[in-house]
Amino acid sequence: MTPVELYDLLKKAQEPKGYFFNKDKDWVLSILQDLLVNKDRYGYTSCPCRLASGDREKDRDIMCPCVYRPDDVKEYGSCYCNLYVSKEWNEDKITHAYVPERRPPGKIFF
Amino acid sequence: MSKKVKLYTLSTCSHCKATKKFLNENNILFEATDIDLLQGKEREDAINDVMQYNPHRSFPTIIIGDRIIVGFKENDIREALDIE
Prior knowledge:
heterodimer, A: 110 residues, mainly alpha, two-stranded antiparallel sheet, B: 84 residues, alpha+beta, 4-stranded mixed beta sheet, 3 helices, 4 strands, 40% helix
């Protein structure tokens, strides 16, 4: 699969849920490319912005879309990677603030 | 004298790539370690290093002189490097 194919597939699935791709398409395609790198490397789509342990069970919370996305998009208008954002974020109606890591340190295994 | 710039990064991380691009565009010399590409003891040692600076072990972890910046926070990086 190519990043563009993944883009089309995910866009269709995620937009109805209220999660939009960042309007910077180059940024998005680069992340999707890295998501495919992780799929090859680990066997699952681990978040490219986080260090994966390589153990599917331990990384379950950071498989894209991660379990932190709803809270991050609600609070900051964007997920940790700036991949999925809200409509308001894309329309510059809210500040593009830095999204801090929400994953509890206790869940991080390397 | 210019400050030493050290980055702990992931080869797949968008914010890490943006940080490297920003530094390159501003002609700042830096040393970067892509931790996801390391294995075994080398990887373990690098993770322990990151923990000293950033207990959350998130990326990029940026060390500029004695200042630690977590994430691609452009304004903080500019300030630490004294660039406009």
